[in-house]
Specification:
- Helix content of chain A is 70%, strand content 3%.
- By secondary structure, chain A is an all-alpha fold.
- Chain A has one domain.
- A two-stranded antiparallel sheet of chain A has the order 1-4. In chain A, strands 2-3 form a two-stranded antiparallel ribbon.
- Chain A is globular, with a radius of gyration of 18 Å.
- With 287 residues, chain B is mainly alpha-helical.
- Chain B has one domain (2-276): Orthogonal Bundle (ABC transporter involved in vitamin B12 uptake, BtuC).
- Helices cover 73% and strands 3% of the residues of chain B.
- Chain B contains eleven helices and two strands; from the N terminus they run ααααββααααααα.
- Chain B has a two-stranded antiparallel ribbon.
- Chain B is globular, with a radius of gyration of 18 Å.
- The N and C termini of chain B lie far apart (39 Å).
- The model of chain B has no long low-confidence stretch (mean pLDDT 86).
- The chains are: A mainly alpha (290), B mainly alpha (287).
Chain lengths: 290, 287
Amino acid sequence: MAAYVLHLAILAGIYIILTISLNLIIGYAGQVSLGHAAFYGIGAYVSALVSLHWHFPFLLALPTAVLIAGGCGLALGLPTLRLKEDYLAIVTLGFGVIVDLIALNLEITGGPDGLVGIPAPRILGLSFRPPLLYLGLVLFAVCLTLLLTYRLVHSYHGRALKAIRDHEITAQVMGINTPAYKMAIFTLAAALAGLAGSLYAHYITFINPESFGLHTSILILSMVILGGMGSLPGSLVGAATLAVLPEMLRQFHAYQDLAYGALLVGLLIWRPEGLLGRGKLSLKFVTRKE
Amino acid sequence: MFLQQLINGLTTGSAYALIALGYTMIYGILGLINFAQGEIYMCGAFVTVLLLATGQVNFYLAFGAGMLAAAVLGVVLERVAFRPLRGFHPLVPLISAIGASIFLQSLALLLFGPNDRPFPIQFTFSTITLAGITLSTLQVALLVAALVFMGLLVAFVRYTRYGKAIVACALDRDTARLMGINVDRMVALTFLIGSALSGAAGILMAIYYNATYPRMGLLPGLKAFSAAILGGVGNIPGAILGGLLLGVAESLGAAYLSSGYKDAIAFIILILVLLIRPQGILRGRGD
């Protein structure tokens, strides 16, 4: 039982990083990414591959995963972020499909079987195989992510992002380089998703394309919306709720996706700010009438 | 071989074109990507297949009922998931549409189960050889049916009062309202027509692939959106052109490049179009 709680806590931690990263794109830059799980998958696969084939230590594998996931984000963002948010949604969705197909078809990624035997992290001779230690590692990463994003959204740059979200043209007139900002935040979010992917791969030690498909992208999106767009505490709550709740309601497993769909539509109609999207971090923009 | 693939591509492309018409019309009038379009396509196919499976209904009636069900679903969706969110930040209806899409897909999964259903009627079709190409009359029939629907839509938009009113709303909703057009009704009508066409596409493809299943609309829906952008979003002839081109590109790509990446071709084209000519082949309303 205790082991199971630890397992859930680790997964919740990983989802919190994912949710915060997607919330940066949605809640702060006002863009939609529907392929966020692809960056998560890229992080997981890169980290697993460099560990398995080149025997990279964890402390080198993780930054490699973060860099490559971020690089993919930049490469995808360059052609698309200059366009309207709807295009980004569909391009990222297509990107998710492409990454999924690549993982399924390449030999090096193990096709549908995926990769097995990913080593547990070992830092300065200390193995992080015991779940309690791993939880510590994940929590450290969560805190780092939170600190980084908190500092970011409360800085000059964070305010610039919010200006872009609320009114892009006005932001441009104020001298904000909107494409550069959107690109930077998209790259950062992809890199953070890569971080989550690396943490996931070394924890679960076995990955296949199934974990990083459209289903996962939608799950992360639901976490962001539930917690509240543009709310960091909301992301914590949204991610933790949707990571733990389905485990407690196992007998309703078949209805899970149905509930996510209804949740997205229902919340947007009745409470577009999400569970915690009030107060300082609330998003006035979601209720902006034209 | 090449011509054969071309014909195969045109057949699937005609389905993309039919769905793309729905996307393009709805985008034109509301500026919204209706992500649930693929599920409407699925709904049309399911209603027809289930009706035919009872053995009591004739084919044309079942086809009409499938289109009608798709149309009604589209209108209900607009009323429930999109109308309350009109005028909000464009992110909000977009995410709502995604939610609606997941909801409908998992609902179909619960109601009908994950397995493929064959089309209940076996059509006896022959193959004809024309100038060295073997064509099945099935493909010809599907292609003709799709072209008829497209022709009807173009004629409707060009020559009827309601069609012109929809165009007016797409150009400028506020001015259209000042001219006495009931904008809400025109939006509903757009959903009705676009969804009926998607439903028809679903039925045609259910016949072509002989398979109906809850996730059948996912990829055609996404690819049709790529087709709409390829042709120029908001542009009706563009959607038809984009759909057919995409179907052909996909079929040729699968034959000559790699069949494993067949589903990626549409999205690679999409990214290339956005990079090189974001307004589409025929200039659309997107920027």
